[in-house]
Write a structure and sequence with these properties.
Layout: H1 3-26, H2 29-51, H3 61-79, H4 90-106, H5 111-136, E1 137-141, E2 144-147, H6 150-173, E3 177-179, E4 183-187, H7 188-209, H8 220-248, H9 263-267, H10 270-286
Antiparallel strand pairs: 1-2, 3-4
Amino acid sequence: MSDKLKNLIVRALTGIVFVAIMVTSIINPLRLTCLFLIITGAAMWEYTGLVNKIDGVKVNRFISTVAGAYFFCAVTALQVNMVTGFIVFVPYVLTLIYLFVAELYLQNKNPMHSWAYTMLGQMYIAFPFSMMNVLAFQQKGYGMTTFDYLLPLSIFIFLWANDTGAYLSGSLFGKHKLFPRISPKKSWEGSIGGGILVLIIAGVIGYYANSGNNTHLLSMPEWIGLGLVVVIFGTWGDLVESLLKRTIGIKDSGNILPGHGGILDRFDSSLLAIPAATVYLYTLSIC
């Protein structure tokens, strides 16, 4: 068996296990929060390890990871009405203050870079993953919270469909480079093909979510709009992570997932798609 075929088999098996874990976890509220808490911590740990390879950068890996994980937990507690008010974020704010003040005493080569990459990790990783709670847990007033697995699950269904459609259509028709400076393999034809597949799937989900006696938070046109948002921001998320890796000078963010690279490689698209989808849903609620 050739190495290429072995890598393909390993990649396929890893992908199947990954999707199975994601789907079975997202449909259950406790498993969803536990899974994305782990993902947040693992992604923060991976990210801080990567940026610490940059000359002049020294991010506190442990405290940054704990801070990101705590922020996820704080948003979870707030969203499910376990706590009320800003008080839950006080430990997080104090931790960020510590990370700023600590640079006065550490005598790092370039504290400005350390500050910047420390805060970037919180905004780039901890904040987006915490928004999964906003998608999954809908506050209805009077302290009532409902769990809607379809919204967070659909984000990843759209991202997976976009990747699959882009790969197939790009392989068959790709001629015009989408962003050659950052990702030479991506093409406009691939992106359009992936987008069309997502819009079709979004329409199907919207139809069945509102069929019969079922009435979902989103109508069928709004589901299609959500699919479009995920396609656009998911593509940007992929490119942003590619830019980060090019800046550091690496091919993969890690090797925790055989054949798929690191945590950031696997969730790069979602890091912009999740917060964008959250803003889209809130925009619909006030229109």
